[in-house]
Every structure is written in structure tokens, then in C-alpha cells.
Amino acid sequence: MQYRLVAVAVVGFWAVMMASLVRRWLLEVKPELIPGTYRSVLTRERENYYCKMGIYLAGGEKRVGHTETAFHYTDDGKHRLTNTTRLEMPATGLLSKLAAFGTDTVVVVGKDYTLERFSVAVSSAVLNAQCDGQVVERGKFLEIRVNVRGEGVEVHRVRLEKGGLVAGGLSPLLALPRLHVGMRWTTVVFNPLTLSPQTVELEVLHRDRLRWSGEILDTHVVEIRSGFMKAQAWVARNGEVLKETTLFGLTLIRERVEEAPNPKSETRNPKETRNPESK
Predict the structure, then answer these.
(1) 86 in helix, strand or coil?
(2) Do residues 231 and 250 both lie within one domain?
(3) pLDDT at 269 (0 to 100)
(4) Domain that residue 225 falls in
(5) Where does residue 55 rank: exposed (0-12), middle (13-18), buried (19+ CB within 10 A)?
């Protein structure tokens, strides 16, 4: 009986210690491995990160535009993420009403890897809008003011997960940590069609081989879900998105870039250019 009690005590102590270590690993030691957060994206190896993807019509044969993303680390320890998306000719399907449209997104992230604010300018032949988002109520909510030219201001408020991502343009994915099958997370996406935020669910389904830029690469397939709409992305081992079918009926394919441009020379939203770090 005495030996049994000792064995139970040892096993119980081991279980408590393992649970503590796992909890500490998830919450403290490896937070950069949790997808869907700015900490998982803004890593040291991406300090001068730049990515350009071609935009193609369904089938991936006709290139109709491009999307560029850059990360810039400012002197005060904050981070700025910029995305420029351009469609160079009229598109089909859901984007037909925004033929030859463009978006310019600027996201400012604080030293603690949490979102502070963002702005999105949407322009096309039929629509011009300025959208500004601000984190409120101690980081619990994101308040978005949408100013459509000629129609006034509309305000949206959505719940924001701590450290959670907000995406603009055509993709909810910027870059990712190392993935494994079964991972799930959510991202808030500003939809340039509806000019409103929506929550997108993502899940790593399985692994697959992808031919990209003349190579056969091992990738994880991530499913992107929003309501009844679904899309997929093929993500390399280092977290780079190589190919993505979007919720808008277009396909994004990553392009090789020999030398990234200087982030300071990129076109900015006028409000951010005047005083990028002011509140």
C-alpha cells in the first residue's frame, strides 16, 4: 500500500510538472509559433521582408495585377506593414464592379506585437473610400470608420483577439510560422468589396507537393473559410505563402524577387505619410 501511494504521488507530480511546462511553452517560450498573431509574423528573419505576388484569373493563366507586402521596423521599436494591391485590367466574377481597382493598406503594430491602428484606401472607377481602424477598450475591440466619397461615414466594431492579425487587400495571409496539420485560427479581414470587416477561419488540412518557380516543394495546404466561401493556400516550410486561391475568385502566385525595394520609398497613405506614428 505504501509503495502504491508513493507511485501515485510520483505520477501526479510528473503530470503537474508536464502540464506546467506545456502551458509555459505555449504562453511564454514559443509565442512566435502561434499562427494568426503579429508575433508569429514579425520575426527577426523578416526585418526587411518583402513579398510580391502576381494576381491571375481563375486557372492561373492570365495575369491581371499584383500585390506587394513589406514589413518595416521603425526606430522607436514599432512595426509598420504595408500592402499595395493593383488590378491592371477589368476582372470577372465578384470583382467585375471594381474593375481596375487598387488598395493601399498601412498597419501599425506596437512594441508588444499588438495592433495599434490601420488604414485602407480603396479606389476604382466606381468607388473611392478611406477606412481607418483604431484599437479601443484596452485592445478588446477594433473600431473601423469607413468614409465613402459622397455617402458619408459608417462605423463598424468587431471583437479583436489579443495580438490578432488584421489583413487588407485580397489575402488574410501575410506569412506564417511553421505549421502542422490540424492547426486552426482566425483573422479579421477588411473586405474591399463590402468595405466592412469579416472574420475568416483558417485550418491546416494536409501536406502536398507544389510545383513553384520550376521546383517541386513540400507544402502545407491551408483552407480559408468565410461563410459558405472557401479558398486554399499552399505554404512552404519556412512559412512563405507560395500560391493562394482567394475568396474573390482570383489566384495569387508568389514571384521571385532578387532585391527588395527600400520600404521608405514605398507609396504611403497620405495620412500616414504626414505623421506615421501619431495617434
Answers:
(1) strand
(2) yes
(3) 41
(4) 34-274
(5) buried
C-alpha pair distances (Å), 107 with each of 15, 25, 259: 42, 28, 23
Cβ contact 269:119 at 8 Å: yes
d(CA 234, CA 223): 9
> H/E element holding 9?
helix 2-24
Element (H, E) at 39: helix 38-41
The pTM (predicted TM-score) of the whole model is: 0.76
Reported as a single tens digit per residue, the pLDDT across 44-61 is 777 778 999 999 987 667
Report whether 93 contacts 56 (CB < 8 A): no
* Judgement on whether residues 15 and 61 belong to the same structural domain of the protein: no
* Cα–Cα dist 37/115, whole Å: 10
**pLDDT digits 0-9 by tens, 209-239:** 999 988 999 999 999 998 888 999 999 988 8
Looking at the fold, whether 11 and 43 belong to one and the same domain comes out as no
Beta-carbon neighbour count of residue 159 at 10 Å? 11
In a domain, 279, yes or no: no
In a domain? residue 69: yes
Check residue 249 and give left, alpha or beta (phi > 0: left; psi -120 to 50: alpha). left
Does residue 78 sit within a domain?
yes
**Contact in structure between 131 and 144 (CB atoms under 8 Å):** yes
Question: How far is CA 9 from each of CA 2, 42, 233, 241, 275, rounded to the nearest angstrom?
Answer: 11, 43, 48, 48, 61
Least confident of 10-14, 101-105, 153-157, 217-221: 10-14
Residue 73 counted as domain residue: yes
